Amino acid sequence: MREDQGLREEAVSENKEGVQETEGSQPAETAEGKPSGTGRIQGSLQADMAYLNGVLDVGKNFDMIHRIIHIGGREACMYLIDGFCKDELVQKLLQYFMDLTPDKMPGDMHGLSKQFTPYVEVDLDDQWDMVIHALLSGIFVLLIDGYKKALLIDSRTYPSRGVEEPEKDKTLRGSKDGFVETLVSNTALIRRRIRSADLHMEMLGAGVSSRTDIALCYMKERVDTAFLEEVRQKIQNIRVDSLTMNQESLAECLYQRKWYNPFPKFKYTERPDAAAAQVLEGNIVILVDNSPSAMILPTTIFDVVEEADDYYFPPITGTYLRVTRFLISLLTYLVTPTFLLLINQEQWIPESFSFIMLKEEPNLPLIWQFLVLELAIDGLKLAAINTPNMLSTPLSVMAALVLGEFSVNSGWFSPEVMLYMAFVAIANYTQANYELGYALKFMRIITLLLTQWFSIWGYVGGILLSVLAIGCNRTVSRKSYIYPLIPFDWKNLKNRLIRRRLPGALKEK
Fold it and tell me: How far apart are CA 195 and CA 188, in angstroms?
């Protein structure tokens, strides 16, 4: 990273020494003959239009709208992208501008924006790269002959859906709004819940081609400033063409080590109330444009297991839900390896638990039955995602009959194996974090194989491997993944395990 930073500083220094652009100069052309995208507005409308039309290929891009008008006796040209600007607002602005008379026209664009632009979100810029970036983001751009700056009016509106309850992060109680794909709407949902001047929304960008907007949300007085600066520098130093997969692409750029450890390094939520709670606790929430979820960091294993339902119920109910979720997640990992171990070593089964033994001799080894069913469950999940809604019910019934009853009657699978795998498949949905579910799945498969090969030693070794995968993991801030267990902090650990009364709640006298 230091070498890349040094190369970048040298390039910037060479640009400053070799180019030395003066005000009014047009940018140099690239090897393909197109302008390079750097330089300043000249103030001559014809020259500025020729440059902008050449960069954006206005004649070929049907959604790139430009129109020449007269404002106060001067020629002007407006640029906007169809579908991004509010038509009624643009129409009113144009009507206002076109009614200006020559005697009212100010001497520069600053005077026009200050005196005769009846809109709130207005900016000025004379750098072509900033003007082009604003235009491609959906901002209305106005160029006037004789003015050496462009007027940027943020009248954009992105196509978006309503802030409905997210499909994945549902709760029995609580608010029913959720994040959408529009960044400004998502920041407003957090602002609505935290009305404090300490809340900061910092805008960054990444991607050479996509130039994706990224918002850092944090409480200035509560956040770890060193970690915040580290995250900021990592985002600014990202060198990719685009964030193709939005937050997943950003996560891979922020954390590039220990890819083989499946346990999640980040927590994602589509709930504004959960994101606001994390911000108030001093964490950093990252919002990426076009993504309907928030990325929370740093994240420990206890953060991953927590859900909003824990806090929307009284402390005793919230504690029960939290402990139940933790125990069921543990059972999804242990139940099938334990069953395989006991069946392979029948002498270890107590007489009172003899009912768990197989009633019939299996035609297929148990290890193969478990592995095939692990794969089949994921196949059913993928099929459910791609199944049209009108066919989901009949296909579910058909899959249950064919893969359930008939597979047992045909002798492929034992009824006991189907029972335990059905429990594992259903119990995985007790927690909403997909990454944690698949991490437990990978560890379960490894433990199954080790148990089949090495009996009790493989079973113990698989459990130790899973414990090491969790214990040796690190958060993005390079702290313990299992804090407050290691390093031990009883006060925080008790708060993690038990849903306690809120600190500000009134106590009974």
Answer: 11
Q: Tokens 């029972």 correspond to what residue? A: 419
For the ranges 250-254, 329-333, 504-508, the maximum mean pLDDT occurs at: 329-333
Measured N-to-C along each axis, helices 272-280 and 183-193 cross at an angle, to the nearest 10 degrees, of 60
How do residues 88-115 score in pLDDT, each as one tens digit? 888 888 888 988 999 989 989 999 999 8
Long-range CB contacts for residues 97-100, cutoff 8 Å, separation at least 24: 97/69, 97/71, 97/142, 98/69, 98/70, 98/71, 100/71, 100/72
Question: What end-to-end distance do the CA atoms of the chain give, in Å?
Answer: 59
pLDDT tens, position by position, 128-137: 999 999 999 8
H/E stretch holding 374: helix 366-386
Sorted by sequence, the CB contacts under 8 Å of residue 445 that are 6+ apart come out as 371, 374
Residue 487, preceding peptide bond in cis (omega within 30° of 0): yes
Phi (first) and psi of residue 152, to 5 degrees: -110, 115
Instruction: Show the DSSP H helices in 28-180 as ranges.
Output: 45-56, 87-98, 109-115, 128-136
H and E: helices and strands count for the chain:
17, 10
